[in-house]
Amino acid sequence: MSSKLLKRCGITTLVLFVFAVMSAVLPARSFTVSGASFQPGSGVLEAGQTVDGTVVFSGDVIRVDGTVEGTAFAFGQNVKVNGTINGDLIVAAQDIEINGTVNGNIYSAGQNLTIGTKTIWDVFLAGQNIKITNDAVIGRDLFAGGASISQNGTVQRRLSAGGSDISLGGTVGQDAVLDADTINILSGSSINGNFYYTSPNKANIASGSAIGGNTEWTYRETEQAQQATSADLWWSVLLSIASALLIWLIVRFWRPEFWNKNSKVIIEKPLKALGTGALALLVTPIIAILLMVTVVGIPVGIILGIAYGVAIYLSKIVVAAAFGLWMGKRYKWATIHKGVWPVLMALIVLAILTNLPYVAFLAGLLVTLAGLGALVAANIGSEKPKETTAIQETMNLDI
Fold it and tell me: Under a CB-based contact definition with an 8 Å cutoff, are residues 89 and 104 in contact?
């Protein structure tokens, strides 16, 4: 799958995770639904009912048959949307079916996704099995990443998709950009623009299909051939561990209390660290962009952007320091060599988790959120220096 498409799918999953955390952290609001009280968190909106404002649906089984006049969030195991959403729709679940009408963007991530909706904006999908039905009409662009993708609907503009097996039986208004091991362009399908695809195999293009522009094939090696470069990957992992440990040591000598202060948030309030990190990860780039709109705010926006990048890099080191601190306290390890060994062990564990198939993205995301949240809560909070000193003396650990 192309790096650009992977980035978009990663952003889709990240946005869904951030909103899921926000829905759990922020206080619930009540809305008016056809004269009755509706509490966010309910899993059902009946046909004929209307929610006026942004709403969050949660539960094992979620069914939205009514109308939402605003942005709708749905998080559960089984989600089915048949009504009208006059705003964006953000969904994360195991099984997802979206029909009806969505007058906004759709962001959806899950295991099985079935899309039969009509929307005038963009659609972002990430999942294992993705099916776009014949009834689906996507007003602008479709971005999809998954193992199996079947597109039988209408995409008014550009289609970008990546996976293992992609089948195109519908209509694409402009260019189609595909990256997969197996690509089938079925009879009756049409691509009105150019067809660009990346694959180890030549696409199967049926005689009854229509491609209005050029067709370009970029050869990609098979997954087995790509595994030959795994040695380079592990060298980069080792360098990453070494550089992170070096930075930890430098800061440890420069500001001995820094790692303990930030680790305390993760150890004592992990949910707070995750929630704060999610908000910081989402809001900080927006603030930086808004600041850079004006000439006066450009330097501040640039400084904020640099600090944001540094904080994201430091986040994994903060989590490693917290893990080392917790292990040392739990097992009463003697502090030797400035406490470097527990931190090194933690960095190795994190490196393995963030490079494992299937769990790498989620593990990396959780590490980033926890570390970033700890940095924000510990250094921008209202905690007094004296209190921090007292906490360090109580913990009686020099790590």
Answer: yes
Question: Each residue of 158-213: pLDDT tens digit?
Answer: 999 988 899 999 999 999 999 998 999 999 999 999 999 999 999 999 999 999 99
**pTM score above 0.70:** no
Contact 217, 202 (CB under 8 A): yes
Query: What is the C-alpha to C-alpha distance for residues 179 and 198, in angstroms, rounded to an integer?
Result: 5
Q: Which residues of 13-42 are buried (b: 16+ CB within 10 A; e: fewer)?
A: bbbbbbbbbebeeeeeeebebeeeebebee
**pLDDT, tens only, 102-144:** 999 998 888 899 999 999 999 998 888 999 999 999 999 999 9
Q: In angstroms, rounded to a whole number, what is the distance separating the alpha carbons of residues 359 and 91?
A: 20
Nearest-CA neighbor of 83 among 121, 32, 135, 45? 45
What is the length of the chain? 399
317 vs 53: CA distance, rounded Å: 40
Contact 145, 161 (CB under 8 A): yes
C-beta of residue 353 within 8 angstroms of C-beta of residue 370: no
Partners of 80 in the β-ladder: 63, 97
> Residue 159 forms beta bridges with which residues?
142, 176
Q: List 185's β-bridge partners, or say none.
A: 168, 205
Q: Look at residues 311, 234, 307 and name the one whose alpha carbon lies nearest to residue 277.
A: 311
Q: How far apart are CA 333 and CA 166, in angstroms?
A: 53
Q: How far apart are CA 210 and CA 197, in angstroms?
A: 16
Distance spanning both ends of the chain, measured CA to CA: 42
Q: From the centroid of its chain, how far is CA 371?
A: 16
What are the tokens at 54? Answer: 């942004």
User: How confident is the model over 151-157, as a mean pLDDT?
Assistant: 96
- The two counts, helices (H) then strands (E), for the chain are 9, 25
Instruction: Determine phi and psi for 301, rounding to 5 degrees.
Output: -65, -40
Q: Give which of 41, 106, 39, 46 is closest to 75, Cα–Cα.
A: 41
Q: What is the β-pairing status of strands 210-211 and 89-98? A: unpaired
Distance in angstroms (rounded) separating the CA atoms of residues 46 and 66: 5
304 SS3 class:
helix
Indicate the angle between helix axes 360-379 and 340-353, nearest 10 degrees: 140
Q: Which amino acid is at 378?
A: A
Residues 6+ apart with CB under 8 A from 345: 324, 327
